[in-house]
Write a structure and sequence with these properties.
By secondary structure, the protein is α/β, with parallel strands linked by helices. It has helices spanning 38-46, 77-90, 103-114, 141-145, 149-172, 177-189, 195-201, 220-225, 240-243, 245-257, and strands at 2-5, 12-18, 27-31, 55-59, 96-101, 119-125, 206-211, 228-233. One of its GO terms (molecular function) is hydrolase activity. It comes from Streptomyces pulveraceus.
């Protein structure tokens, strides 16, 4: 396990590093979604024969998984992105391929916009692109964002636990409660410009993987017009890498070969 200090107060991001096959020249960083952890969600993908050629960093965002959970951190998407940037700098990972799921995808877009020298290619896995109204999805980030922080710390976290089910809760329970709530609030609020607008303006190769059964993304045609490769992956839900690992590895490898 590796770590790097990413805030002035000494909070540390941690990651598991997989060296890859000898001679592999690429570095890839995997970023998880809200309430998740990169190890459980991405280890099988990082070691898949189609993706195991390069160095892989399975990184946990500040507040989640094996990383520190400071209570004095804001957990905005920009702050998450800057913390990841500091960790990548410490790891000597420049020009990385970033594979990022859900909220991690929103963080990855902001990372690429704010620290362009660190990101060579983006693979966004059903990532958040737009702000959303708090409470729009009771079991997801907007449901968490519907609570005030005081409400969430007092009773909201246990209500969320009962709504999300055992799979998501297995990693969500590891998150700092302030980190979970503030991250959800800022994910629902989005960025200015929005994550979608930032994505449209990026110059790096960009691929967006979405579940085929969910239908086209809002504004998918405009994404394609701006050079974003949108791929509909069959037989999966939001957790594409877990639901259809073979298709995920194949499409991610294809994106990183372009």
């Amino acid at each position: 396990m590796h770590n790097a200090r990413v805030t002035a107060d000494g909070a540390r991001i941690r990651w598991v590093e997989i060296p890859g096959r000898p001679g592999g020249s690429r570095t890839r960083v995997f970023l998880h979604g809200l309430g998740a952890s990169s190890g459980p969600y991405f280890t099988a993908s990082a070691t898949h024969p189609l993706l195991a050629d390069g160095r892989s960093l399975l990184m946990d965002l500040l507040g989640f998984g094996i990383s520190d959970r400071p209570t004095d951190f804001g957990y905005t998407l920009e702050e998450h992105a800057d913390a990841v940037a500091a960790a990548l700098e410490a790891a000597g990972a420049h020009g990385t391929d970033v594979i990022a799921h859900s909220m991690g995808g929103a963080v990855a877009i902001v990372l690429a916009a704010r620290h362009p020298h660190l990101v060579a290619r983006l693979v966004l896995v059903d990532a958040n692109l737009d702000p959303m109204a708090p409470g729009a999805d009771r079991a997801g980030s907007s449901g968490i964002a519907a609570y005030s922080e005081e409400e969430f710390l007092a009773h909201g976290w246990s209500e969320v636990r009962d709504r999300v089910g055992p799979h998501w809760w297995a990693t969500m329970r590891l998150a700092g409660r302030e980190a979970l709530h503030r991250s959800a609030v800022h994910l629902a609020r989005g960025t200015a410009p929005t994550m979608r607008e930032l994505l449209l303006g990026l110059k790096v190769p960009r691929t967006f993987l979405r579940p085929r059964n969910a239908g086209p993304l809002p504004g998918e045609e405009r994404l394609v017009e701006h050079g974003v490769r949108v791929v509909a992956v069959p037989e999966c839900g939001h957790n594409i890498m877990l639901d259809n690992p073979e298709a995920f590895a194949r499409e991610t490898a294809r994106a990183l070969a372009d």
